[in-house]
From TrEMBL:
Keyword field: Cell membrane, Membrane, Transmembrane, Transmembrane helix, Transport
GO molecular function: cadmium ion transmembrane transporter activity; ferrous iron transmembrane transporter activity; zinc efflux antiporter activity
NCBIfam families reported in the protein's UniProt record: CDF (TIGR01297)
Family: Belongs to the cation diffusion facilitator (CDF) transporter (TC 2.A.4) family.
Gene3D superfamilies for the chain: Cation efflux protein transmembrane domain, Cation efflux protein, cytoplasmic domain
Membrane topology per record: Multi-pass membrane protein
The keyword Transmembrane helix belongs to this UniProt entry's keyword annotation: yes
All residue ranges annotated as the Cation efflux protein transmembrane domain in the record: 19-211
GO cellular component: plasma membrane
Descriptive protein name: Divalent metal cation transporter FieF
Transmembrane segments: 15-34, 123-142, 162-180, 186-203
Length: 305
């Protein structure tokens, strides 16, 4: 498959953020009407989550727009880390809604209330599942094409919505079938716990990018494999990698024959970079050439010590 151009990837990111905001607005209006008709706290939990979705989607839209700004004199590495910052904001919204929902659920356990028109609530949740599923297909396609962390975080949140909406249907169905009023707040508390757990996952992933965590071991191994496959390579050391939020940054020391001219070393490095770019099309590379056999202070040695 031919790699998408940078312009195409930017366009896909924007499409995904616009779709996310639109879906959140539709679901908020639908669930608000359903909650007013039924009074079910389980539907309230889903309404709150959709409200958080809207805030998170707006933050994602702003974060992606900022991340896509080209490098300039004050941000020579670009603004890609706006995406994990947007993911952190999403995590705060999700955790806050989970805590508030837990409070509401405990209140309903103490003073249970009957659920009106559960059939309307179930129909609302089925509609929400279908619309959310369609959005997830779009988001996951965009994530595969772009590697966007903010959109991936938004997609993970909407994936949780599928489970949440299914739980709401179960709560309403059990309440209608048994007449026991506690199903509604019990499911609401379970959903609250799920939201807080999901927020903790978003925080860990976003902080990993902001703290310059290394790329996965498989990616680092692939870099070494490509470099060592070149006939002129004599070695590679001090490999450092990190996510930029919208791509990767890869740097290393390339060991070459010490008798090569500067022009020859430059041409070999360009060849290796082209081969690496075919594997990591969204990466930026910084390659330092060194004569093979040189003994110097190395990051690899300091880490091992």
């Amino acid at each position: 498959m031919v790699a998408d151009t940078a312009e195409a990837r930017e366009r896909y990111r924007r499409w995904a953020t616009y779709a996310s905001v639109t879906v959140a607005l539709i679901l908020i209006a639908t669930k608000l009407a359903s909650y007013m008709a039924t009074g079910a706290v389980a539907i309230l939990s889903s309404l709150m989550d959709s409200s958080v979705d809207l805030l998170a989607s707006v933050v994602t839209l702003l974060g992606v727009a900022q991340a896509l700004q080209p490098p300039d004199s004050t941000h020579r590495f670009g603004r890609g880390k706006a995406e994990p910052l947007a993911a952190l904001a999403q995590a705060a919204f999700v955790a806050g809604s989970g805590v508030f929902l837990g409070y509401e659920g405990i209140g309903r356990l103490a003073e249970p209330r009957p659920v009106q028109s559960p059939e309307l609530g179930i129909a609302t949740m089925v509609f929400a599942i279908l619309l959310t599923g369609l959005l997830l297909l779009v988001q996951r396609w965009v994530v595969r094409r772009t590697g966007s962390m903010a959109i991936a975080a938004d997609s993970m949140h909407y994936s949780g919505d599928l489970l949440m909406n299914s739980a709401v249907i179960a709560a309403l169905g059990l309440t209608a079938w048994s007449g026991w009023p506690y199903w509604d707040p019990i499911f609401a508390l379970c959903i609250a716990a799920f939201l807080v757990w999901g927020a903790s996952r978003l925080v860990r992933e976003a902080l990993g990018v902001l703290m310059d965590r290394e790329l996965p071991a498989a990616d680092r191994a692939k870099v070494k494999e490509v470099v060592r496959a070149h006939a002129q390579t004599r070695g590679i050391h001090d490999l450092r990698t990190r996510s930029t939020g919208i791509g990767q940054h890869i740097e290393f020391h390339l060991e070459l024959d010490p008798h090569l001219t500067l022009a020859q070393a430059h041409d070999i490095t360009d060849e290796i970079e082209r081969e690496l770019r075919a594997v990591f099309p969204q990466a930026e590379f910084a390659i330092h050439q060194e004569p093979a056999g040189l003994e110097d202070d190395r990051l690899d040695h300091r880490i091992r010590r």
